[in-house]
From TrEMBL:
<feature type="domain" description="HTH cro/C1-type">
    <location>
        <begin position="14"/>
        <end position="69"/>
    </location>
</feature>
<dbReference type="Pfam" id="PF13560">
    <property type="entry name" value="HTH_31"/>
</dbReference>
<dbReference type="InterPro" id="IPR001387">
    <property type="entry name" value="Cro/C1-type_HTH"/>
</dbReference>
<dbReference type="InterPro" id="IPR010982">
    <property type="entry name" value="Lambda_DNA-bd_dom_sf"/>
</dbReference>
<protein>
    <recommendedName>
        <fullName>HTH cro/C1-type domain-containing protein</fullName>
    </recommendedName>
</protein>
Length: 86
């Protein structure tokens, strides 16, 4: 299922739903991801001040993938960057 996020606040409830669907408690999930329960709580509340590196770890460990819809006008440039040719 694809979900379009309009703000940081939109991400939190989605991640909470994914975690709960996997029958994972917040404290156990945070421990297995090596992030604090406080951090995971901030993510699930949609805080806009979380660290991207840790957020990416949470997304990855929950099996959530981020997909960017890049404007066609930038596609070639982005492709070169992603291929390491920049």
């Amino acid at each position: 299922m694809k979900v379009i996020l309009k703000s940081a606040k939109d991400l939190g409830p989605v991640l909470r739903a994914v975690r709960k669907a996997q029958n994972m408690r917040q404290d156990d999930t945070a421990g297995s991801m090596q992030v604090s329960e406080n951090f995971l709580s901030k993510v699930e509340r949609g805080s806009d001040t979380v660290q991207w590196g840790l957020l990416y770890r949470v997304l990855t460990d929950l099996g959530v993938r981020i997909e960017l819809d890049v404007p066609d006008s930038a596609a070639d440039r982005v492709r070169r960057i992603m291929d390491g040719d920049a």
